[in-house]
C-alpha cells in the first residue's frame, strides 16, 4: 500500500464532495428552473469554465491511460495521430457556435435531442436519437468505470471490487446531488490539475531519460520506426492516421456530451474566451500526455499492460507525494467523463422520453424526484455491469464514439445550416450512418485503409441530402 | 412544461449571418491545420531515418508538425477570435428574464 498516494487521493475525493454539496445549495435557491439548472447550470457558464468542461469531458480515460499506452508501443507516430484532437479545441465552438446557442435558447432546448425534436418536429427522430444515446453512451460509461476502478486498484492496492465501490460511490453521490453545475465546476478543477500534471510529468520524464536527444537516440537504437510517423511496424499509414481527423477531430461536434456544453454558455464573450483557452488546454494535454508515453519507453522498457504506463512512469520519475497529487489527473479525467455521461443518459431518459411521451404534465417536484431516481438507478446498473464487465461492453465502448458521430453529425449540422433539411433526411441519415457503421465495423474493418467511421459519415451525408431533396419536392407538390 | 408549437427558426435573422461566417472560419482553420500537420509530418518524415534532421532533439518532422504546429494554431485562433469574431446577443428575452429571477 502506497500511503502518500492514498492520502492525496483521499484529499482529492473529499474536495469533490465539498464542491458537490456547495453546488447543491445553489440548486435549492433556484427551484423554479430545476431542469435548466440541474442539466445545464442555467446556461450561465463563463469562458474558462466552458473550455475546461469541454476538454475534461472529452479527454477521458482514453487520453490518460489508453493514449499514452499506445504511444509507448507505437512511438511518435501515435503522438502525430493524437494531435488531430487539437482541432476539437476551436472547431466545435466555431461550428455549433452562436447559431446553436441562439436556436437552443429559442427552443428552450436543454439536450441535443430537444434541439433535434424542435428542429425536425418528428417523433421518429427523437426515438432514434434516444436509442442511440442510451445504447452507445451507457456502454461507453461502463467501460470508463472499469478504467477508473482499475486505476484506483493499481494506485492503492485495494481489490478491484473495493476500488470500484470507492469510485462509484464518489461519482454517484456527487452527480445525484450536484447536477450539471457541480460537474462543470469540478471539470474546471480537474482540467487545471490535468494541465499542470501533464507538464510536471513530462518534465520529470525528460530529466529521468537524460534529455530529449538521449531519449530519441535510445528510441532510434531500439527500433528506428519509433521515431517515424508510421508506427513501430510501419502500420500507421497516412490514410489511416488522417481519418482520425474525422473520428476524434471534427466529428466530435456530434457527440451529445460535447454538444450539450455548446448550449450552456453565458454569452458570446464566454465563447470567444473558451475558443482560445480550449485550444491551448487540449493541445498541451494531448501533446504532453502522449509524448510522456513515448519517452517512458527507454526509462521503463518492457511494460506489457499499456494502461499501466502512465501510473508507472509517474511513480518512477516523481517523488511519491507529488506523484500522488499528479496522479489525481487521470482519475479526475475519468471521473468527469463519467459524471457527464451519467447526467446525459439520465437527462435523455427524463427529458426526452419521460416528459415527451410518458407524462408530459408532470409537476416540477415530480420531475425533480424522477431525475434523482433515474440518475441513481442508472449509476447502480452501471456499477453492477462494471463488477463483471462483459466482452460486448468493451466492444461497444470502442465504437461508441463513431456510432454517435455517424448518427448525429449531419442531422445536427444540416439542421443548423440548411434550411431545407427535413425530418425524412434526418431519419435516413441516422439509419444509414448507424447501420453502415455497425456493418463496416463488423465485417469490413478499415476499408481502403481508412478508419471504419469514415465511410458511414459519408453515407449519412448523402442519405441526408438525397432524401431531403426528394421529399421536399413532394412536400411542395402536396402544398400546391 | 413549455409545450409550445413547432416554431420555425427565422433563417434570415441577422445574427445568423455572423454565425454562418464564423462556422466557415472554423472550417478554414481546420483545413489550414490539416495541411500544416500533414505536410510537415509526411513531407519530412517519409525520408529514411538516417537522413532525419533534429530540432531541440526531436525529429524535424515531429517538431514542425506537432510542436510548432500547435503554437501556430494557438496563435491563429487567438488572432481570429480577437479580430474576426463579433459579439451578438443570444436571447431576446434575456433582459426581462434576468430582471424577474434575480
Automatic annotation (TrEMBL), chain A:
The primary location reported for this protein is membrane
The UniProt GO MF terms for this protein read:
pantothenate transmembrane transporter activity; sodium ion transmembrane transporter activity
Q: Name one GO cellular component term.
A: plasma membrane
Keywords in alphabetical order, please.
Answer: Cell membrane, Membrane, Transmembrane, Transmembrane helix, Transport
Per the record, membrane topology reads: Multi-pass membrane protein
List the transmembrane segments: 6-24, 45-65, 77-96, 125-146, 158-180, 192-216, 236-255, 275-300, 320-346, 367-387, 393-417, 424-444, 450-469
State if Transmembrane helix is listed as a keyword: yes
Where does it localize? Membrane
Q: Which Pfam families match?
A: SSF
Write out the GO biological process terms.
sodium ion export across plasma membrane
Identify its protein family: Belongs to the sodium:solute symporter (SSF) (TC 2.A.21) family.
* Name this protein carries in UniProt: Sodium/pantothenate symporter
Q: Which organism is it from?
A: Evansella caseinilytica
TrEMBL record, chain B:
Under the heading Pfam families, the entry gives: DUF997
Keyword Transmembrane annotated: yes
Which key words are in the record?
Membrane, Transmembrane, Transmembrane helix
The membrane-spanning stretches of this chain are: 21-41, 61-81
* PANTHER family per record: INNER MEMBRANE PROTEIN, INNER MEMBRANE PROTEIN-RELATED
Q: What is this protein called?
A: Uncharacterized membrane protein YhdT
Q: Which organism is it from?
A: Evansella caseinilytica
Q: What's the source species' lineage? A: Bacteria, Bacillati, Bacillota, Bacilli, Bacillales
